[in-house]
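ARCHIVE CARD
Drawer: 12
Card no.: 0347
Subject: one protein chain, sequence and derived structure
Cross-reference: see card 0346
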Amino acid sequence: MAGRLAITDPGNAYFIDSPQRVKNVQAEMRKAGIDVYLGSRPRTLSWIADAFVPWRSYVLIPAEGMPYLFTFFIDVARISSETWLDADHVLGYVGMPGMEPIPNISKLIKEQLKVTRGRIGYEDGISVYTPEGYLTRYEHALLRDSLPDAELVDAHAIIDSLSLIKDRGTINRFREAGRICDLGHQAVYEAVGNGGWRKLTEADIGGIGAAAMRRAGSVSEWNFAGLNEIATGWRTALGACTPPTDKPLAAGEPCMFDLHSMFKLGLGDHSHNYLLAPATKRQRWHADNFVALIDHLLKDYRAGKTPAGLLGEVRELASERGCADYILPGVEHGIGLWGDEWKVGAETNQAVPYWTDPAHTYQEHEMVIAAMQYVCTEDQIGFRYENAIVLHRDGCELMSKYPLGIEEIA
């Protein structure tokens, strides 16, 4: 049953060479003198197993050979049917004495991998992203006590470095996820147009977008900050995640519709904004400012740039237009396969370890979410732009092709 749904044909547009990824990790382990790598973050699980792994899980990568995936026992059969790993390497745990995850992992390390000394890599750190999945103090203590002669070292940078540049199959998955988001936005536009917004709430908009994307092949509204994030009126000026509410859409208000799709663990993320008629001149001024800033940012994105440099250029344009006070300090966040949303770049010379490096120089075939928020609380108006992009030497490719603009809807 293992691998039944896995993409193993190199000719498939969405193929990922997972065995080669593991070999690349093992090569970096050898350089770092690491005998076993224990991954616990969703980003690591997705990148190695190429399957949806939602429970507290672990991937154990030996110095040679196939990794072992440990997950909650109720999901072993399903994950085995989707991952490239064989059934002997997808193992279950239960919260019962003798069947807990860390003791079983330790036993496998000692008895099957024959490692009792040396260096064991694990994943440690901090993130603004809630489900980051670093090893807990409790788990670390259990691992340390069961392997007293081994040295535990933080090795998460191995995965972060190797997963930074995206391969063809991964990029193609994001392209499809972006196309699916576009269909969701089109369905929302058709629903709110011609006065349709008068009978809709924010929650309705989230459902309309979700239904259209599911019909197009999305398997999840993946975002942990509220699935599809919908805001209208004063809520657009919150400058944060906006799970939809039962607030009705209302005349004269701004709207922000941030839709999320997932296709083969590739994530679609695109925000589009509207003004519901009648729009004021002041609202139109804000809207025109925002569109001009995003247009400039997208034309400026390319390999060789840095987040701080791009933000500086956007702020310069915003100052010229008299709206610099309304730009929140950021132009991107990270993106990878499911569970990998925030970390960007290498950690070298960061003032604060583990956080996004504003001086990181983008490379070809990196992906980020081009993201910017514009907030004017006194006017109760705000706009958000998000779109997954692939960086090239001469520019960037947008995953969502939905036209940039802020239309006024009667």
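Annotation on reverse: The first strand starts at residue 36 and ends at 39. The chain has two domains: 18-162, 168-409.
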